[in-house]
Each structure stands twice: as C-alpha cells, then as structure tokens.
Design goal:
8 strands; mainly alpha; three-stranded antiparallel β-sheet
Length: 292
C-alpha cells in the first residue's frame, strides 16, 4: 500500500507518498501467502526477528518466574509472533474507520504550525502523522483555523524542543462550536474548500511544497493564502459566536469549562466533526485529497 510519512506531506511537491508498506491487515496466514513476492519479504526479514524476540522474552519470563512465581511477565513478543506476517500494532479501530471513508484528514505530529490535508483511504498513514477519521469540509475548516492553532500552541507537548500535536493534549480538550447554525456550518465548509483551492493553486503555480509555502506565509506582507486563511478564520469565529474584541484563548478556555460541566451533568455536548443535525452530509464532502 502507498505509505504517507510527515516529510511527504509537508516536504514533497503535491505531497505524494515516497514509499510503500506491506500490510496484510486483517488477513490470515494462508490469504497473505497468496501475495507471494511481498510475503517472501516478510518471511525472510520479519519472521526471524519475531522468533528471536519471542525466544528472548520467554527466557526472561522463565527467569522472573523462577525467582518469583507471582511475578508479572510480558507476552508482547509471543503475541507478535502469533501473527508475525501482520503489523505489531495494526490500529484496527483507526484503520477500519478511515478505510470506510472517501477520504480522511492528517497533520504532522512534530510541527510548529499544523498543516492539515485530506488523504485517500488507499494510502496508509505513518505513525508520525496524526489522523482524524473525518471526511467533511466543515471539520477541516475548524482544524485548519487560527483558533485551533492558538489552542495547539498552548496545549501541545514537545519532542525535544519541537512542538508536538497529540490527540490527548490538543484534540481531546479542544471545544467545538456547540450551537452553530446550518448557515455558519456551510460558511466554514465553503471557506475551507476555497482555502485548499488557493493553497493548491499556489503550490502548483510555483512548484513548491507545503513547507516552503508556509514559510512565505510567516513573512510580513499580503498574499492570497493569508487572505484565504482570514476568510476561513472569520467563518470559524462566526460558527463559535466569538466576537472580534474577545480574547480567543480565554473564549476557548471558558467554552472548555462549559462543555465539561455539560458532560458531567449528562447533557448534550456537540462532539467533534460535522453536527448530526446536518441531514445532507454529501454537500459537505468534496473530493479533493492526496491520492496517487
């Protein structure tokens, strides 16, 4: 399967995957063997390592139990050996979710400013990408907004000194608009799509990567991407009911506390993604994405 890594996303022209991954997701041994060429690669390069690791683990477990019969032992490598032709951690829930969508959203984990994009489900994401099982323009617009970036700056963890987007520190605590009107939702979706069209047009015109494009965005002066970002941000602010004079971070903190109290009392909370009140979801799912 084509395999997208973070450097492909932000560093490659058109974000094309630069490699493939052998992934027998959900397949048993006999079904996997039908793919002879790639199965032989796994059998030659993976199986010996799996056997060696399981043997060492069994030896360590025996030593532990000999010294303490009640000791807790580790069975990770034994379990990996039982399905040696498949991924150690298949991320079954995630992969099942995104393969059931026409596209899904990703951003790089280690980044100063998250750059989001849609990806075809035919392409598998690397672990260095944060993955969102959403396919609609509204969700993309909220995630790519400056409001979400402000939350990221305050909430992100770090890898060495680099900011890191993680689901538990950033996404899980980020409050979504709780009572957006259908018009506000539509406006975010429209500006989200227009933003990506502008962004892709600039990349194609100048034959540059996301990384190079966003470096220009950080410099002073007007450009069409900044204009598109502002239009998206204005639509997102309206969806939240956030006034221009209000402090965005203070607003988000107050909304986070409000959502927490609603959850605690068992009342309705608008979850991330396109609200369930939207009947015609297809109007909010366009077809642009990274694909081969």
């Amino acid at each position: 399967r084509p395999y997208l890594i973070q450097d492909d996303l932000v560093g490659a022209i058109n974000s094309q995957p630069s490699r493939y991954v052998i992934d027998f997701f959900g397949m048993d041994l006999l079904d996997s063997k039908k793919y002879e060429k790639v199965f032989k690669i796994i059998e030659s390069n993976v199986l010996p390592d799996r056997e060696n690791a399981a043997e060492k683990e069994e030896k360590r477990n025996k030593e532990l139990l000999d010294s303490n019969p009640k000791a807790r032992i580790n069975r990770h490598h034994a379990n990996f050996l039982n399905k040696w032709w498949r991924m150690s951690y298949e991320r079954r829930d995630l992969m099942t979710a995104i393969r059931g969508l026409p596209r899904y959203i990703v951003c790089g984990q280690v980044t100063k400013r998250p750059i989001f994009d849609f990806v075809s489900p035919e392409i598998s994401p690397n672990a260095a990408l944060t993955v969102f099982a959403h396919d609609d323009d509204y969700t993309f617009g909220i995630l790519q907004s400056t409001l979400h970036w402000i939350w990221f700056v305050e909430r992100c963890s770090t890898l060495k000194s680099d900011p890191r987007y993680t689901s538990n520190t950033v996404f899980d605590s980020f409050p979504w608009p709780q009572q957006p009107s259908e018009k506000a939702i539509t406006d975010v979706a429209v500006q989200s799509k227009a933003f990506r069209e502008t962004r892709n047009s600039l990349r194609n015109k100048h034959n540059i990567s996301f990384r190079d494009l966003y470096r220009e965005l950080e410099k002073p002066g007007e450009n069409s991407l900044k204009t598109a970002q502002k239009k998206l941000d204005d639509a997102v602010f309206r969806a939240y009911g956030l006034k221009k004079k209000e402090d965005p971070l203070e607003f988000l903190l107050d909304l986070n506390a409000e959502v927490f109290e609603l959850e605690k009392s068992g009342e309705f909370v608008q979850k991330p993604g396109l609200p369930d009140s939207i009947i015609e979801r297809s109007k909010f799912v366009s077809d642009d994405m990274i694909k081969l």
